[in-house]
Amino acid sequence: MSDRKPFRWHILVFLAPAVLVYTAIMIIPLFATLNLSLFTKVDRVSQFNGLGNFRTLFGDPRWSASFWNALGNNTWFFIVHMLVQNPIGILLAAILSNPRLRGAAFYRTAIFIPTILSFVVVGFVWKLMLSPIWGVAPDLLNAVGLKSLFAPWLGKEAYALTTLALISVWQFVGIPMMLIYAALLSIPEEVIEAAEMDGVTGASQFWKIKLPLILPSIGIISILTFVGNFNAFDLIYSAQGALAGPNFATDILGTFLYRTFFGFQLQLGDQNMGATIATAMFFIILIGVCIYLFAIQTRLRRYQF
Amino acid sequence: MSVSRHSPARSVAAHAVLITYTLIALFPVFVIVINAFKSRKAIFAHPLALPNAETLDWVGFKTVLKQGDFFQYFLNSMTVTVGSLFFVLLFGAMAAFALSEYRFKANTMVGLYLALGIMIPIRLGTVAILQLMVASGLVNTLTSLVLVYTAQGLPLAVFILSEFMRQVSDDLKNAGRIDGLSEYRIFFRLVLPLIRPAMATVAVFTMIPIWNDLWFPLILAPAESTKTITLGSQVFIGQFVTDWNAVLAALSLAILPVLVLYLIFSRQLIRGITAGAVK
After folding, report:
1. Inter-chain CB proximity B102 and A8 less than 8 Å
2. What residues 28-47 of chain B have any CB closer than 8 A to a CB of chain A?
């Protein structure tokens, strides 16, 4: 039917503003930056260098050690989010979606509060909370008799990254909670009633009826977490500075990119190596998204009510 | 109806989990805010005590208000956030409507092209964006931030909104067409009101990263007159690291307006989500 119609201008009108802004501000600069990764500066003159920058980044010991360290840290950062943030978000959403629960609005509002705070605030708040000078954290542990467990976590190489990941989880748990909550509420009452007629209630109702229905939403929050984590920067920068201390233990790709791009201490900023790291990040994220699109999303069945 | 669905034990357990998590979520914020009102001595001696007549001290706030122009920063953040949000929602909903409603040749292509932006952080293009803003004379203007955040917010908005638009009943739209409504009227009069709950959700998810962003204000608009509250407080706190009163007061000033705004806005959001689910 659509073939017989004249050109439908309204489609163009609907699409044009979004496509234009997006292309001009995002796509063109992005490719211009990716293009920079193929060049290098020799005596201030830009020269085509092919994939030479990438050989340096992955192979040259001066660069590759930092790169693999940042990539490894970033992966751990993501794993902590997947194992802690998303299950907690789903659990809270599952409890909240019970129609008989009193005070659900209060809990929802309260639990979402950390998400609205800026990284700067969150970074400093936790720096103060965990500070051995101030003693809020040691006092609290003392109250439950676990004072011996206290350590200046943000200052220890072994714990700093996990601590920051948990701080980030603390901040962002509201997002999976809200998305899953909305998905759970959109399950029609008839489906739940039918399950109850068959005697499927409580936890088994959640596992057997609701969870399969919200799998697409879980897929979406997983990929959002992945993308968010692999371009994270602000929290680490606010809490640990551009050097991502102690001794680069909390260095992730975002902070590594920032240091390379804009320079730090005595090292000068390097546009081309910065662009090379940005390109590497681009491909890492691309691979993750492709896995999601082709391996996960296509296998999830979509239910329409 | 089964017994387990409203057994008191389950309900107590549910509340226990929720209360525990609510405490975890609010406790750090609470500690920061109460200590902002205390004297330096009391901050260290009894960090968990509420301020009383003896320990009440406004010195931190006085330092902050003398040093930084927080009201201006706040206005800048509001302008940028509201401006970007308006364009993201309007342009995003329009594009989402086109993609979910019409079948045309380039549909999948345009959809994928826009979806690209969900996975690619706009930050990776920062250097070229800065060059662009310098070339167009937009450096140190709030317009540059609105443009960047609109581009940043659009992909996710289109993605989420078109998911919701697919659920709007075809019968309703076709009924509108039979009544002679133009496609524009169908969009603005029929579809937009129906997806308001989804718009509220998208608004919150778009707004948060914009309000909280440190990167682009730092690079595109670091001038005193265009500083956002996030950048302003970062710079301020960085200068006063050892003045605990000032740092705690600055953090409270950064937290409280957002909190008030959120508490006003969250009713809308929650009503929106629930209304959307009940349909």
Report:
1. yes
2. 28-29, 31-32, 43-44, 47
Domain range for residue B217?
63-278
Q: B75 and B49 in one domain? A: no
Rounded Cα distance, A60 and B74, in Å? 46
Tens-digit pLDDT profile for residues B66-124 = 876 778 888 999 999 999 999 999 999 999 999 998 888 888 899 989 988 877 788 88
**Position A206 in a domain:** yes
Q: What is the mean pLDDT of chain A?
A: 85
Residue A110: give the domain boundaries. 53-299
Contact B28 A126 (CB under 8 A): yes
Q: What pLDDT does A302 receive? A: 60
Q: Which residues, 6 or more positions from B192, have their beta carbon under 8 angstroms from its beta carbon?
A: B93, B199
- pLDDT of A123 reads 87
ipTM of the complex: 0.82
Whether B90 and B227 share a structural domain: yes
Listed by number, the residues of chain B in 103-132 with a beta carbon closer than 8 Å to a beta carbon of chain A are: 103-104, 110, 113-114, 116-129, 131-132
SS3 at position B68 = coil
A181 touches chain B (CB under 8 A): yes
- Decide the pairing of beta strands A39-42 and A45-48: antiparallel
Distance from CA of B268 to the nearest CA of A (A): 11
Residues in A closer than 8 angstroms to B155, CB to CB, are 22
Q: Residue A15: inside a domain, yes or no?
A: no
Question: CATH number of the domain that B104 lies in?
Answer: 1.10.3720.10
- Could you tell me if B43 and B162 lie in one domain? no
**Interface residue A154 vs chain B (CB under 8 A):** no
Task: CATH number of the domain at A289, please.
Answer: 1.10.3720.10
DSSP letter assigned to residue B56: B
Chain mean position to CA B28: 20
Structurally, how many domains does chain A consist of? 1
How far are the Cα atoms of A190, B168, B174 from residue B186, in angstroms, in the given order? Answer: 30, 12, 9
User: At residue B277, does pLDDT exceed 50?
Assistant: no
Q: What is the pLDDT of residue B1?
A: 41
Choosing from B19, B38, B57, the residue where a domain stops is B57
Query: DSSP assignment, residue A293?
Result: I
Count of structural domains, chain B = 2
Please state which of the ranges A23-32, B52-61, B186-195, B269-278 shows the lowest mean pLDDT: B269-278
Place of tokens 């019968």: B171
Q: Establish if A7 belongs to a structural domain.
A: no
From chain A residues 222-251, the ones with a CB under 8 A of any chain B CB are: 223-224, 227, 231, 233-234, 237-238
Q: Are residues B277 and A182, on separate chains, in Cβ contact within 8 Å?
A: yes
What are A40-53's pLDDT values in tens digits?
A: 887 777 788 878 88
Instruction: Judge if B46 and B67 occupy the same domain.
Output: no
Question: Which of B25, B128, B274 faces A29 most closely, judged by CB atoms?
Answer: B128
CB contact under 8 A, A227 and B121: yes
Residue A9: inside a domain, yes or no? Answer: no
Chain A: give the shortest CA distance to residue B227, in Å: 14
Write out pLDDT tens, residues A11-64.
999 999 999 999 999 999 999 988 888 888 877 777 888 788 888 888 888 888
B141 and B266 together in one domain: yes
- Residue B215 to residue A301: CA distance in whole angstroms: 39
Locus of tokens 């964006």? B129
Assess whether B106 and B196 both reside in one domain. yes
Residues B49 and B68 in one domain: no
CB contact under 8 A, A108 and B119: no
Which tokens in the block code for residue B122?
A: 């706009």
Same domain assignment for residues B109 and B222: yes
> What are the residues whose beta carbons fall under 8 Å from the beta carbon of A16, sequence distance 6 or more?
none
Q: Is some CB atom of chain A closer than 8 A to the CB atom of B102?
A: yes
